[in-house]
Amino acid sequence: MLPNPNKFKNHTLELVKSEHHSSYSATTNDIDLNDYHTNLLKAKEQQQNLAMGNDTITNPTILLYELFNMKLLRSFDNSISAIFNKYIGYSKKYKSLTISLIADDVKTITIRKATNKSNEIVKWKTYGSKKFIPTKINSDDKFIFLASGMSEFILFEMFEFSYILLQSDGMYRNISKETIGQCKDKTIVILADNDDTFKSIIPPLKEMFNLLKMIVIDFEKVLNKKLLKGYDFRDFCNEINNKKEILKILENEIIKGLKDV
Question: Which DSSP helix (H) or strand (E) runs through 147?
Fold first, then answer.
């Protein structure tokens, strides 16, 4: 469990540790997840047909392990299959995994690896809205995680974080005033990509969330070593490859960050 920022007003390091486990069932909050998922699949199929052809299907499980290594996935004690079933699909045309971003309906489907007319590899080819920003802010959560990237969206769902997800760095401009308002009295935790483009958006993000606490987690400082350009939260999770250890490291970095706020 991540720390309560109110405990750090006087920089005390006393924490109350607890574990939170959740599981998925057939019904949650009076919603029939089976019916809900069926409707989502229909909506996904309408857009995903744009990206599909008639080629032989590659084993999607192997492609999933390219995103998240097996050891990392097995470290999750809560069910993550429901997340994969809801958000991850497959493009037969490109033999690639897809990720769907969903609000009331499917807003965006992105293909992890596609090709353009020149047969060059295109990462995260987009159908639908590139500007759509998936957001989940639970009223009881004190921390809102912010990152850029499609894999990070799945990780945020797996970790059950409150989050603001940018499809790409420049999309921060589309964060709504409503979303900013939902973050009142909370702390924004930015999981920074190791590149100049992402670092360039940190100052305008701080200005955008002007009156809010903000912590920037730099993975080079966390791991105390030089990292490749573009190293991101997905790379970090795959390197640590254990849910509890990842949460422990994030908690320690947040504690440090709160002392400096």
Answer: strand 143-148
Q: Which residue type does 128 have?
A: G
For residue 132, the tally of other CB atoms under 10 A from its CB is: 18
Express the helix, strand and coil content of the chain in percent, nearest 5 each. 40, 20, 35
Q: How far apart are CA 136 and CA 23, in angstroms?
A: 18
pLDDT tens-digit profile of 232-261?
999 999 999 999 999 999 999 999 999 876
Residue in this structure with the two tokens 């047969």, named with its chain if needed: 119
Amino acid at 162: S
Reported pTM = 0.79
Q: 10 Å Cβ neighbour count for 219?
A: 20
Cα–Cα distance for residue pair 257/201, rounded to 1 Å? 19
Residue ranges of the chain assigned to CATH 3.40.1360.10 = 133-261
Q: What is the C-alpha to C-alpha distance for residues 55 and 52, in angstroms, rounded to an integer?
A: 8
The CATH-assigned architecture of domain 133-261 is: 3-Layer(aba) Sandwich (3.40)
